[in-house]
Amino acid sequence: VTFAAKVDVNDDKSLLVERETDAGTETIQINSLPAVITCDLRLNEPRYATLPNIMKAKKKKVDTMEAEDLGVDLMPRNEVLEVYEPPKRKEGVMVAN
Fold this sequence. Notes:
This protein is an alpha+beta fold. It has helices at residues 51-59, 67-70, and strands at residues 4-9, 15-21, 24-30. Helices cover 13% and strands 21% of the residues.
């Protein structure tokens, strides 16, 4: 589902998605999960941090972990075969007004 403006989760784990179209808004119910949904800018409601919470966050301890402790393999799986610059752009043509 694309351009979701509102997403609600029902009790039966289905999704009710309101999306924008050229003709207005459309409501779609998705009964089977997983689902891929892209959102519209209206879906986000930003939260702004207050000064007391910023000060609390500065004092909070950050735990660091090693990848080996988590069993994560960090070996690269991609191999770069060739790197080259794109061709130069051709000169533009001036048109009369």
